[in-house]
Amino acid sequence: MMAEDGVSDFGFAKRKAARRLGIDEDESLPANAEIEAELRTWQTLYQGEEQAARLADMRTAAVGLMRRLAAFRPYLTGGALDGTAGRYAEIEIDLFPESAKDVEIFLLDAGIAFEHREVRKTTPDAPEMVFALDWDDVPARLSLYPASAERERRQPRARLAQVEALLAPENARS
User: Fold this and answer.
1) What is the count of structural domains for the chain?
2) How do residues 138-156 score in pLDDT, each as one tens digit?
């Protein structure tokens, strides 16, 4: 599912797989790290060059988008960062603006077409808003968090300079 269908949420993928296999979702399911390792193996075997090219395209598009959104403190997260982005993955960028409306106004003023997405989780660490857009023919998801949450977010993420470093020729395979 994660490799072929573009599912990026480990929890969702685990629950769906458990239902497909007819097992209880509360049973011992693999850890995210185990799934990620298998995903990388699968991509190497079956998507090889296609996945590497897609990853480079996504990271290049992410750099352009992050430059454009620099005022909102962007961080790249997800599959484009960790190298597991598949065919249908989108660029995932976390933003930490002073006001979520500032981002919306910026996108409107810049003529960048976007749509609001429903925030799925209603947990304390859920984004305030989520926008979907296409950037250089690559789908992107912008998750907007309060500025005060920037130091609290613990998931793997990278600033612009780190993403640019991933595109350096010696790092192009990760």
Assistant:
1) 1
2) 999 999 999 988 888 677 8
- pTM given for the model: 0.76
Question: 158: which DSSP letter?
Answer: B
Query: Residue 93: helix, strand or coil by DSSP?
Result: strand
79: containing domain? 47-171
The CATH number of the domain holding residue 151 is: 3.30.460.10
**Domain assignment present for 37:** no
- Among the residues of 74-170, which ranges form H helices? 79-82, 100-109, 160-166
- Whether 13 maps to a domain, the answer reads no
Angle at 124 between CA 146 and CA 93, to 5 degrees: 50
pLDDT tens, position by position, 38-62:
776 766 666 667 778 888 999 999 9
- Cβ proximity of 80 and 56 under 8 Å: no
Residues 6+ apart with CB under 8 A from 54: 85, 86, 87, 89
Own/partner contacts of 144-148, CB < 8 Å, gap of 24 or more, are 144/72, 144/95, 144/96, 144/97, 144/100, 144/103, 145/94, 145/95, 145/96, 146/96, 147/73, 147/96, 147/97, 147/98
In a domain, 3, yes or no: no
Joined together, the tokens standing for residue 76 give: 């790249």
Q: At residue 59, what is the residue type?
A: R
